[in-house]
Amino acid sequence: MNPDVLLSATIQGEGPNTIVFGNGLSTTQQVWDQVLPYVPPSWRIVRFDYVGTTPATSAHWNTERYRTYAGHASDLRQLLSSLDTTRLLFVGHSMSGMIGALAATQSPGLIDELFMIGASPCYVNHADYHGGFSAEDVDGLLRSIDADIAAWMAGFGPLALGRDASAHQLTQFCDTLLALRPDIGRMVLRSIFTSDYRDVVPRIPCPVSVVQCAEDVAVPVSVSEWIASHTRCVAHEVLPVSGHLPHLTHPTLIGPLLRAACERVAEAGRAPVRLPG
Active-site residue 49, yes or no? Predict the structure, then answer.
């Protein structure tokens, strides 16, 4: 199956440069609507939905393939490889940040800059790494999810959006969380909270931008600092807000950062001018 069909991809515009938006947990491609005006008009915009996150893509769900991020990264690589583009900026929120990292390391040259929002390679604390949760925390969290995923999702929604979310935003986000098929939701959440891709991060071959909210229930600032110190980081921004989805709740803060990333990528792709003589 063509990757654009498999992932319900939406492509807007034309041009030599392309920006691709990767969603986080249970969100769909519409979550990026408010930041699209910040993308330069000469850029092509690609959005998609991971397999399992919408009714259309759930028809293609395969438990073994998507037990970890690897299956999603393979789908992403196929999608990005199918795009005829000169320069490509991949924007990955939450789990998409690490899915993008896997795709970039497996296919060097595929992504020209990786823009991570609230991404984490590992949620569990280790001796030299603060992921935000103890192993016991994660075990308890997964037991709660297995026992009643709908109740867990309903409680997670307000915490994930943070204090500044509107009632409308909260309703929309909770509706997408609760629309996730329970068996898929349990597996995706388990793949997220038990993941450990710390070994991948230093091998990301392209420049990286790291954006993090100062108060994030899922990812502490220390994780963004760790990513920034282990990559070719070209921008590290800690937004003075709460929440895990700033592109939804604070688009006026994320938008200019995306615009700057587009300008960096376009500038890097320009051939140097040779002066006469």
Answer: no
